[in-house]
Here is the input.
Amino acid sequence: MEDRNFRGHAAMLGAGIIFGLFSPVSKALLETGAIDAYGLTMARMAGAAVAFWVASLFFRKEWVSPHDLFLLFLASLLGIVLNQGAFVLGVSMTSPIDATIVTTTAPIFAMVIAALYLREPVTGKKVIGVAVGAAGALILILSGVHAAVPGSGSVKGDLLCLFAQLSFATYFVVFKKLLGRYMPVTLMKWMFLYATLCCLPFGYGDLAGARWAGFGWANGARLAFVVLGATFAAYLLLPVGQKNLRPTVGCMYNYVQPLVASLVSVLAGMDRFTFGKGCAVVLVFLGVYIVTQSKSRAQMEAQRTK
Here is the structure.
């Protein structure tokens, strides 16, 4: 059990760090004007689909039942298509600060959905841990408001970003058992194939319209990180976390993303490390620790039996 927990925590921490790096890298790429947000999303899905299918050739072949293929299609809609599509559209309408703040709702959604769907108890420790982690993430985010590009928020944009978090939290909770039945590469090759087919009618024009002729090596490196790092590698790690951790615990690593983005800003000289940021880092990891100490449904049932 301890080994499983370690693998789960390591996988979600790794995914959180990679997703945190995705924001500044993708922003740098989009600011060049070589490709727009929809074209980048399409490249991300199609590129990852190709990478997962190629990678699957080096693993033992797994047969997936037609019923599970349908479930993987639904998982793809929630975990990739609706999550990424709604978030990109929401970010295009609202301010970056609003969008980042909304991402802190994912663990809250996961806690509520797990309580309703998996009958996981909403304990005091779990609520306190989510609140402490959220406080740390919000301190990090709001500390960067002064450096943010001026821009007004949008209720519609904020709601789309909120829907993206709800979609991801639902995927993380509902498909936990399904994702435990297959290897990560098998799961993701089908999920990203479905995602690519769903988005192709909407994103092909933007992808084809990118300025590929003058793309340059720097943009090529950024795009390679988005596809192979922030998508292929990160989505290989997610099923490991989903399989080995409780949903609320796994989603708590969403708070690592603003932490990483803040650290990158400091290292790049775009921001400075302050006492407030140090406190925020402590709060994020303290929140994760408190949630891990809360009792699961199985533990509480075992206690009642004794």
Remarks:
- Residues 2-305 form one domain.
